[in-house]
Amino acid sequence: MSKPKNLMKRNQFETTVWSHVRPLLPSLAGLFLVAFGSITLAFVGWLTWYDMTTWSKDIALIFFGSRTGEHISLGIGMKVIHYFLIGLALLLPGLVTLLRRRSKCPYHFGYLASLPENAPIPQECLFCTHADCIVTLVRQSPSTKEKEGD
Question: Relative to the CA of 72, which of 40, 88, 111, 116 has its CA 20 to 30 Å away?
């Protein structure tokens, strides 16, 4: 029994859209982490500057002291050092994700699987450290499809 044509077109459209969106997901995640990490660290910087200039606080007191009863409260038991570490924990993996994504191969996840059957594999792919492309290629190879059909 064959599938209706509109269902086949819809699946083909979803596959096409997903194949264009999938390579952007790591970059989007990296940008999200960098943005929120930067916002958090900017808040910590502003709060530190405000406390040092307005209240003449020591930096150790700002980072490790309690803010209970002050105008800018950080939440129950939260100290500025916690926000600083959260900001770093968001920013650093985001930067690593973005820089690693940009410095590696120009091809995207699933690139080898999208090549025509008799097309040569690019030289860069033979020595690439990302195994994702190769794994996708092996999963979609004709020999595995024949085994599934049996």
Answer: 88
